[in-house]
């Protein structure tokens, strides 16, 4: 029953809405909302009636056209339900059960709801205590307003203001990863979570208060205790992503869709207590010489076998490997299209199909990188990086990884000190939120005898260089490590954070494929310098290397590829070792 989702005419290129908290558009602000009283601004417009459909197998989905909603669709179908997309406000009013998977930034979402009448219908539906599940932004929009690019008025159904996490307390923003819930009251949909982690990815949150305490069903601690879920009657909303929380997340969706169902999944004995360190499986994807899309792995970025045929190293099929890593317990799966910089991204149909197919059976976050940039084709048609990213999001990506284009943007920003709003980082983060933007840094170690020899940040090495050098700076590269640029990894990391990146994937060409451990010196320097999460990459060869990087640096996650592809070190072994060493991970 899938139809085209209701979107505005420019859904793939939303402009940030200029809505303030005092706006008189279709925003409803009410400090004392209850199920018996629809906020007066909507109530005065017209008398709307709710009539539920009779098909128990149908879920109505409010997809306003931004972000990765494909994963929610796949999870719903996985549970045996059909989807009816909202086309008009009447579809909301007639829904038997409604899911609102809000993705992206607050203002563009409210802009769509206001300009289409969806906000009014949504308030009417919720006021009538109809079955509703809001996800992530779908929870935040229920509050009075948000500070994100604002203040911006919300639906006003729950008292409170959505504010940004305070990074000055030493916590990295965005809040990305698997964290624990503190369930405060019977929620029904959370009954099967037990002691397990769920997946969060957000920079803004709503805080508990006396005015909204009767709504709160669970909280989460990340610097402060924030609202993780709400429930009143048949109305539910969660800040985490059930569609990205593996089996435990599917149980939340199942509880909402089948409230009387009983599950017999065995719960883990170990109690989730805080944000877990993430173990990420990376798949470098490219076409081989026969034109097939394969997973490969480089040795210092060289992906060809050093044999007579000099073929591209083939370690498996991307969709099959992604599904296997999900079953093995990977916290995220990252696809890197390593030929992306040579091809037009929107024409890269095989990679888009990989994402679509993988997201059907992989219910943890998917990141894709390679070739995300502004582009003008042979017919002089211009495509913005936002349009390119939007295609990847619609195909199943949760996060976009930007490499070479981020280097160029950072260089320009450091030269001019001006944020133009035109860089890929700024465009995508403005619409989808900075939590959707990962910057992949590919530096090469440049040894020094004297740190004053260069203008870039250098560090004293724990292990001397090949000629006894005690210092090094890390030169950033582009185009798969083939071209060095006049910018250091430290300077790049600081610049992209200011431009709006939400996470850094930190590679090291010197360590790539060597299996001797991560470059702890580099990772410590960068993770200490920025307040956004850092993913350690390049060099993992044993379980001890993961413990080493987590215990000696502030890395939030560690990524590996070859050792997983070649089955040298299983993901489960990595996590078991980390647990033994007292490092919190998701089981």
TrEMBL record:
GO biological process: L-histidine biosynthetic process
A Pfam cross-reference name: His_biosynth
Example of a GO MF term: lyase activity
Function, as annotated: IGPS catalyzes the conversion of PRFAR and glutamine to IGP, AICAR and glutamate. The glutaminase domain produces the ammonia necessary for the cyclase domain to produce IGP and AICAR from PRFAR. The ammonia is channeled to the active site of the cyclase domain.
Active-site residues, record numbering mapped to chain: 136, 241, 243, 284, 442
EC identifiers of the protein: 3.5.1.2
Domain Glutamine amidotransferase: 61-256
UniProt-annotated binding residues for L-glutamine: 136
Name of the molecule in the record: Imidazole glycerol phosphate synthase hisHF
NCBIfam families, alphabetized: hisF, IMP_synth_hisH
Xref: CDD domains: GATase1_IGP_Synthase, HisF
Pathway, per record: Amino-acid biosynthesis; L-histidine biosynthesis; L-histidine from 5-phospho-alpha-D-ribose 1-diphosphate: step 5/9
Family to which this protein belongs: Belongs to the HisA/HisF family.
Catalysis performed (reactions): L-glutamine + H2O = L-glutamate + NH4(+); 5-[(5-phospho-1-deoxy-D-ribulos-1-ylimino)methylamino]-1-(5-phospho-beta-D-ribosyl)imidazole-4-carboxamide + L-glutamine = D-erythro-1-(imidazol-4-yl)glycerol 3-phosphate + 5-amino-1-(5-phospho-beta-D-ribosyl)imidazole-4-carboxamide + L-glutamate + H(+)
Lineage: Eukaryota, Viridiplantae, Streptophyta, Embryophyta, Tracheophyta
Coiled-coil intervals: none
KW Hydrolase (keyword) present: yes
